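>> received
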Amino acid sequence: MRQAPRKNTRRAAAQSEAARQAALTIRVDFGPFGFLGPGKIQLMELISKHGSISAAGKEMGMSYRRAWLLVEEINRIFREPLVEKQMGGSGGGGARLSRLGRDVVGRYRAIEGAAATAAAADLRALRTSLAAEPDKAATSG
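>> returned
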């Protein structure tokens, strides 16, 4: 008599535990001025890393135009630009964060860290209260 293959229960448990996540996403809403969330902050960090709006957008999987529009939106929110742009020339253009831009990114990350610390116990409690398996219909769209 043939036996059914054994299930790797440790791997299944690890995958199930990995699927059980509860995380905060911080979005700072400035009302009619706009908002600042994880995507814009990541774009700014990548602009700082690469010195280029194009390279930052590319790393995030977005077009140059989309990245440029987001930078324009970011710069309209505050009293002075957070991203300083240099027009192309023989050496090409570039971009960098202004002093205020670096300060805004730092403050956003501080808010994010403080919120995560404050909410850690509650997030653990919520995570342990999740259903045994995710509802495929709820996560598909």
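>> The CA atoms of residues 29 and 35 lie 4 Å apart.
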